[in-house]
Automatic annotation (TrEMBL):
This is Dibenzothiophene monooxygenase. It catalyses: dibenzothiophene + FMNH2 + O2 = dibenzothiophene 5-oxide + FMN + H2O + H(+); dibenzothiophene + 2 FMNH2 + 2 O2 = dibenzothiophene 5,5-dioxide + 2 FMN + 2 H2O + 2 H(+); dibenzothiophene 5-oxide + FMNH2 + O2 = dibenzothiophene 5,5-dioxide + FMN + H2O + H(+). SUPFAM superfamilies: Acyl-CoA dehydrogenase C-terminal domain-like, Acyl-CoA dehydrogenase NM domain-like. InterPro entries: Acyl-CoA_DH_C, Acyl-CoA_Oxase/DH_mid-dom, Acyl-CoA_Oxase/DH_mid-dom_sf, AcylCo_DH-like_C, AcylCoA_DH/ox_N_sf, AcylCoA_DH/oxidase_NM_dom_sf. Pathway: Sulfur metabolism; dibenzothiophene degradation. Signal peptide: none annotated. It comes from Aeribacillus composti. Residues 251-384 form the Acyl-CoA dehydrogenase C-terminal domain.
Length: 410
């Protein structure tokens, strides 16, 4: 059966409720997404992975964190990151594209407004996907809630105008969270459907990696917004956003799993040895085995760090009162996410280079696509430079200075 036929067959399946962690349905979903990615890659296609997102809607993977009684998968944050790593192993573009969605689900779950919370969770429970329109290119410092995108009064509602960049995943989404400022400078968010008049989503991302995340431009041309779709942001809330940072490390950990798989296949598929080889076959060569061992260990370490940091997020979220996360617990989660990044980025970039040490010159052929791992990791790691994280950690260890607030969102 061809991969396309497998996709068509999977699309016709009826899921018995949303997929759950370690379920056969989740295994099948991830397997089909991996095969779809492989087929497009081998065909040299840069077609966006719409098939994968159709399956994600159908399986309601986006509802993984919702309680079972609310139509979700009942997963913990640790469970979610475990699934994220597996999904990133299958297709890092797809996994990355869900970052804003899962972040928003966390925000909704903690919303103290019961009526609004249940309304939005109902949207998630039926399989809809949420995107983001947050980042702007301006002279304002990143992390401050001041936006050039404006929300102005228009009768009983509002009008939204502006341009957003790096809108990862929004092209696949049914809804989008738009961050804006009122004429008085107050930060607000608008939760609107992506098909509303005036919302234009462009696939103009030209990065070296994560090429199919749809991380392009979102234009908001005098978009009408209903009053109930607007939330005025409380800037006094606990200001750390460790979930968003750790999410990127989860995607990288999934890529590392794939690096190990590719390295293993390279060694097993070779019959010729190198000139100074230590064995008659590559598979028996102790030096190549050592490199594979290093790669496997790096992948294990990255995954372990992500899951350990996810545990601190679980603790922080589970202790929230009226939607408010304790500052110290939130700081702990932020610290662990930062520490994970400092180590994982280094391990991952090194591993993506070591992969070529087991394959020889033939491994550099474009048809092999092995360069995608380094490009994808480099792109993900560039979201927040390691130097800033490491310095802040060092200042905390030496001087007890808390990590900076207002972390970068996207």
């Amino acid at each position: 059966m061809s991969i396309q036929n497998q996709l068509n067959e999977a699309s016709s399946l009826t899921f018995n409720g949303p997929v759950k962690v370690d379920s056969p349905e989740l295994d099948q979903l991830i397997d089909v997404i991996a095969k779809d990615a492989e087929e497009r890659r081998n065909a040299g296609s840069e077609e966006l992975p719409y098939h994968a997102f159709d399956l994600i809607r159908q399986s309601r993977l986006g509802a993984l964190r919702l309680p079972v009684e609310l139509g979700g998968g009942g997963a913990s944050i640790r469970d979610l990151f475990y699934v994220l790593i597996r999904l990133a192993e299958a297709d890092p573009d797809v996994a990355h594209s869900l970052r804003a969605h899962y972040w928003q689900v966390e925000e909704i779950l903690r919303n103290p407004d019961k009526e609004r919370r249940e309304q939005l969770l109902g949207i998630v429970a039926k399989g809809d996907i949420i995107g983001n329109a947050f980042t702007e290119i301006s002279s304002k410092n990143v992390g401050h809630l001041i936006f050039e995108t404006t929300l102005t009064q228009d009768g009983e509602g509002y009008r939204l105008s502006g341009t957003k960049y790096f809108s990862t995943g929004t092209i696949y989404s049914d809804w989008v969270i738009v961050m804006a400022s009122t004429p008085e400078g107050k930060p607000v968010s608008a939760f609107i459907p992506t098909n509303r008049d005036g919302v234009i989503i462009e696939d103009d991302w030209d990065g070296i990696g994560q090429k199919l995340t749809g991380s392009g431009t979102t234009r908001l041309n005098n978009v009408y917004v209903n009053r109930e779709e607007v939330t005025f942001i409380d800037e006094t809330k606990t200001p750390f956003n460790s979930f968003l940072q750790l999410y990127l490390q989860g995607v990288i950990a999934g890529i590392l799993r794939n690096v190990v798989t590719d390295a293993k296949a390279l060694v097993q598929g070779r019959s010729r040895t190198f000139t100074f080889a230590s064995a008659d076959t590559p598979a028996a060569d102790p030096l190549l085995q050592q490199i594979i061992g290093q790669l496997s260990s790096s992948a294990f370490a990255a995954e372990a760090l992500v899951l350990a940091a996810a545990d601190t997020l679980d603790i922080a979220v589970n202790e929230a009162v009226n939607g408010e996360i304790d500052f110290d617990l939130s700081h702990e989660a932020s610290l662990r996410a930062a520490q994970a990044k400092v180590i994982i980025d280094h391990l991952a970039l090194q591993a993506a280079t070591l992969l070529f040490e087991v394959g020889g010159a033939s491994a550099t052929r474009q048809s092999k696509h092995f360069d995608r791992h380094w490009r994808n990791i480099r792109t993900l790691a560039s979201h927040n430079p390691i130097a800033y994280k490491a310095r802040a950690i060092g200042d905390y260890v030496v001087n007890g200075t808390k990590l900076p607030i207002r972390e970068v969102y996207f």
